[in-house]
Amino acid sequence: MADLPDRVRLVIFDLDGVVYRGTDAIPGAPELVGWLHGLGVAVRFATNNSMVTRDAYVERLAAMGIPTDVEEIVTSTSATVEHLAQHAPAVRSVLAIGAEGMHRELEAAGLEVTRAADVRPRLPGGPLDRHFDAVVVGLDPSVDYDGLSTAMAAVADGARLIATNADSRYPTPAGFLPGAGTIVAALATATGVTPEVIGKPEPAMFRSIIESCGVPASECVVVGDNPDADVAGAHRAGCASILVLTGVADAASAAGLAGERRPDAVATDPSEVRRLLEGRVS
Hints:
The protein is α/β, with parallel strands linked by helices.
């Protein structure tokens, strides 16, 4: 199975499970990225993680022998910033539920950011003393009931509800923990408002990358390990996908995939990804 574009000008990589596991690069990943860079192919790294800044990812990848720059890193926070700039430029004041890395990225974009923990209604369930244009939600390990109540009040006052991502869980070395999607679901339930979700598998992240690179979706390939996020998100954005079996999926599960979760090609590792792309990249 290999139904990839004849010409590929943009390759978007997921990170965890595709480029690295923990603190170690997946064998062959640095060579694959270096080969694409050498050919002048546009490369982007896209992650749903909203807690880490792009600068931190540049440092992490450099330590693994993968030189890159901030422009090549796309987190769900930076994609949210791009989405707001393109589709909601009037948004200036933001109430944020998220980790410090998300706050810094939003502030660096020139937004007026207030942490939900720093605002409280005058009375429980009452209005806030200021208006916010949007509530931006990411993964916040310290979120509490008061913060959720504040965000609920801001949405009731007309703020847009925007989720950097809606992941139900995320992996740690010890197992899975609740993801940003659990916080988003709580706010959606409490407010009755359907959030704008930016991260994978929603297409907004990939579409913003395609637009910023000036490359049509038909000449883009997404390389990921998660059929539900990477493959489905690629197809929703009109891109082809390669499922690499170094993370979530194995050969048995890949063989049974269907619909938008079925990749255009399957690769056992980064070396096979290169073989699939040879003769197509330019």
